[in-house]
Amino acid sequence: MPAVQAVETVDGWYCLHDFRTVNWSAWKKASEDERKQAIEELNQLMGDWEGIEKEKNGSFGFYTIVGQKADLLFMNLRPTMEELTELETKFNKTKLAEYLEPAYSYVSVVELSTYMSKAEDMENNPEIQARLHPILPKWNHVCFYPMDKRRAGEDNWYAEEFDERARLMYDHGMTGRKYAGKVRQMITGSMGFDDWEWGVTLYAHDVLQFKKLIYEMRFDEVSARFAEFGSFYIGHRKERDDLESIFSV
Ligand code: VOV
Fold first, then answer.
1. Can you tell me which residues bind Fe-coproporphyrin III (predicted)?
2. 150 neighbors 156 (Cβ within 8 angstroms)
3. Is residue 29 within 8 Å of 13, Cβ to Cβ?
4. Ligand 1: which residue has its CA nearest to atom 7?
5. 180-235 pLDDT tens trace
6. pTM above 0.90, yes or no
7. Rounded distance, CA 188 to CA 186, Å?
8. Is 213 in the pocket of ligand 1 (CB under 6 A)?
């Protein structure tokens, strides 16, 4: 079988999704002073991350997660992967991290494909540059899941011709566009970085719109034939001001 043409990607900020579970029984055993100190320290660290976002050197989102897979999601974007490693280590050294257990993490980089436009035309396009270096939407709800494109028998994405893949991605984009103003998406590529090929992070004002969009997309040819999904995580955006109520026991 002759090789098909790969698609070039244009890549932006690196992204760490860091999911944690709170060890409530240990947290409840901590003294009130210890708890106060731990929350204050996290508050400061989150303040630093927000400062970096203000300077447009990265972005930060904090969410509570519903269901047993995790309790919290700390999401950071940075120009380099090393910065993510550093901030993760710093976070792990905080007092509060002693009461958090790792639930899941995902390492990826903001990615745009070049099925619709040439990479060189994307370089000087401010709209594209903003999408590659996104300030995470301050929308109420977040949905994250990793995914692959299938490579089995007749349904092998990596054996499809470029034009055919471009056609399928165009149709995919058209379905997505129906949700303008309702769902925002950030696609991060993770080949070589993590266990799946892409991370899908969605934002919505109304949580039900995630289900509507994902359901509708299941019928798009590209999802119906080629998509394989990992675990879904769903949650709600929180601010530093919410820390006290989240951790009050
Ligand atoms: C708001 C919804 C929305 C919109 C508008 C949208 C549009 C677009 C466009 C225009 C493009 C192509 C250019 C690019 O940006 O790369 C993509 C690309 C991609 N998408 Fe998408 N997508 C959405 C939403 C959306 C969802 C919900 C999913 C998950 C699939 C599902 O079935 O659960 C998804 C997946 C992807 C992936 C994995 C890629 C990269 C595939 C590759 O092979 O490179 N995506 N997507």
1. 131, 145-149, 172, 185, 223
2. yes
3. no
4. 173
5. 999 999 999 999 999 999 999 999 999 999 999 999 999 999 999 999 999 999 99
6. yes
7. 6
8. yes
Dist. CA 163–CA 35, nearest whole Å: 57
CA–CA dist 185, 14 (Å, integer): 16
Amino acid at 179: Y
Active site residue 115: no
| Two tokens, residue 99 | 């009461």
What does the alpha-carbon distance between residue 120 and residue 111 come to, in Å, rounded to a whole number?
A: 15
Residue 148 annotated in ligand binding: yes
Ligand 1 pocket member 223 (CB < 6 A)? yes
Helix, coil or strand: residue 221: helix
CATH number (3.40.1190.10, 3.20.20.370, 3.50.40.10, 3.30.70.1030) of 9-247 reads: 3.30.70.1030
Q: How many CB atoms lie within 10 A of CB 152?
A: 10
**Which residue of the set 63, 99, 145, 233 is catalytic?**
145
